[in-house]
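hi!! sorry for the late reply, been swamped w classes. u asked for the two structures so here they r. pasted raw, havent cleaned anything up. first the sequence of the first protein and right below it the tokens
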Amino acid sequence: MKAFFMTDSRSHRRCYLQQYARGGILHRGWTEFTPRLNFKPVIKDISFGGMGLILFSPIGQQSLELLQNGKSNLFIEFNLPPSLKTMGITGKVKWVKKKNYLQTPFTTLGIEFINKTQELYREIDKFFKIATTQSELNPNRRFFPRIPVQLRTDYTIDGILNWGLFPKVFRADVLNLSALGISIKTITPLKEKELKWLIKRPQQIKLKFFVDYLNRFVHTNARAIYFNPGSLSQSVILGMKFINLPERDQSMLVEYLSLKRHLFIKEDISFIENTPTLQTISA
């Protein structure tokens, strides 16, 4: 598992993650009760002061107004890896943004913690100390899931030139994408000497790809982690880790990929529900 850190004018440092939780609306006067946890938000970022959430479950206009006016709060039940300890926190909504992607409405919002306990601070502090951009909390588990996408990317490899003057531009199809890296299948063939050059200098890749959700290109440096050459006359599969991806792009990729995952799950459920029941043929 890896996480991204971000600092800005806020008094608390934020750390990006993509953690799934459970939540419900806590109405005024219900502080002693746990509300019905009827939606599953994605925790987009967290700090000692609050967290950013993505909600795919629809919130009624009346409930939304109560949250914005401070007359209701959100109760979130979650855990922070590597700990398996489940915590429940109450948060006051500070901002709300309604969005729509591919006719799928969703909401992003930020909450400020109300019940700031020592236990909460201890778990966040433990998470911050371990979840650096250079470490893996769970090497056998991808904390940022890889999502299949239909994108195309152009990339260059420092030191590989056309006519000895201009960087050679390679083209590839994106197989899957995460907030940490990308897996591609080359369209432009890699010559044997080019592949050897890449293996010796894996950290010298520059790539760009267009994301319709962002309506712009993402530009970043990357390091090759693995490759499956097969036959060099055919496509090569490359796995790459992003290097110095801008914070704004990190945040939006977490949002975009959480949304894509939600759409995949929704499509799978729809497919199962619409699959006709098999009938046994009697002898």
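now the second protein. again sequence first, tokens right under
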Amino acid sequence: MVFSESRLSCEQRLSRQLHSLSELSEFLTLRILEIEEKLGTFEKILANKDDDTESIVHD
């Protein structure tokens, strides 16, 4: 009986850890997507500034 209770406890602990790992993975994935969006916006801003600088130099 003690063995089965211990095994159940171990399985419950592993289940909680797996669930926590899953939540962490989801959070990190969403954070990476957010950062990629911000980086894309920043790159567009820089590209526009480069275009503006080139047009000023050529004018």
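hope this helps!! also noticed smth abt the second:
The mean pLDDT is 87.
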